[in-house]
Amino acid sequence: MTNIDYRELKISDIDIQLFSGFDRYQDVKKCWRKEDGKWVLKDIAFVEQWSIDEYEFLVKCLQNTVKQGGAVFGAFDGDMLAGFASLENDFWGSGGQYLQLSSIHISSNQRGKGVGKKLFSIICEKAKERGAKKLYISAHSSEETQAFYKALGCIEAKEYNEDLVEKEPCDCQLEFSLI
Questions:
Q1: pTM for this model (two decimals)
Q2: What pLDDT, on the 0 to 100 scale, is given for residue 90?
Q3: Which CDD domains match (predicted)?
Q4: Beta carbons within 10 angstroms of residue 56's beta carbon
């Protein structure tokens, strides 16, 4: 059993080198789609593996999250990044109840060890400290990703963030109650 160290990252911590041993690989076989108001699991297969360009874009996004007052947390196995999660700082929703969990990713060799669950818990605590009532997640629609969120108690969002839906129309819009 490895000892994972969880810590909040500063802008200076977030660079391309941080992801040198990180493997965002996923062999997707099935994805959820909403058809006629019902969720259906469909045979949609592809391999997702981030390129250097995607990591460079990710670095800019995560740095921006911190610059805008959000938070990024890393999970480290020794000096290697095992996983990360980010929380945005913009409240939204009809009652200003939501803060967005903008990313949570676990390196392929670290999945199934509780790293994602712990990062999710850390993000929830941070969102509660900031006064959020709910966490909002625009989540990958793959069967495995949705099973992860369902196991944590996430449900379909009561309100959809239309900007996020437009950016990622195949994502599942989820929420998690913090109260």
A1: 0.93
A2: 96
A3: NAT_SF (cd04301)
A4: 14
